[in-house]
Here is the input.
Amino acid sequence: MNKDENNTKTKEKNLTDKANSVAKLENVNESETTAEKLKKESERKEPIKGSKRFFNIIDKLGDLFFLNIYFVFTCIPLVTIGASFTALYTVTNKMVNDDEGPVRDEYFRAFKNNFKQSTVIWLIDMVMLVLVYLQYVYVVTSNSEAARILFIVLGFEFIFLVFALPLQFPLAARYENTAFNIMKNALVFSLAYLGTWFRVFFTWGFLFVLYFLNTRIFIYTWYLWILILAALFAYVCSMIFIKFYEKLEKPRE
Here is the structure.
């Protein structure tokens, strides 16, 4: 009886061990199957994400194209250039945060809302630019002592404009303030955040430097300003301004 009992227990133990090993194999197979399923799903999702990213880029370029057309159209009277730049930055600031609505509605709403303030800023800028140009013509065409003194003054005026102009309309697009305060803050922030100022100045200025060095480049690319360049440069600058705005709006501890 003892032997039979021992044999029975041994058989039961062997059966239990086999059952456990089979269960382990099934668990391993199930985990492997699950891993394979997840891998296949991720492989399926990657092309979807890639295609979605591609279509998002195409969608952005389409919006920038139409935005550029609206910008060029509203700049034609020349006096409205300030309001056009403010509206352009208003839309591109929203685009970089994927917060924009219909481009046409957003643009012309911003153009209308900021027209008075931005036009005042632009008219002051125009007067200053004309005065600087007239002084430059006088300095170049005259050999008098007054012309030499004026040349030094002209240098300071040029530096002032270089630092004051790039941030004026981005600030007007972002904040409500008087025209004088926006112009003053644009100069102060340009000096306080030289890195931001330089990147914005370089974004708009490098192509004009190329035009100055080789006029053929302008002949080959002038039509791109009508199609997309102004809106594209404003979009790049809005990407630069993200951290700049965060610094200005971050509450002081």
Observations:
- Residues 90 and 158 are 27 Å apart (CA to CA).
- The radius of gyration is 33 Å.
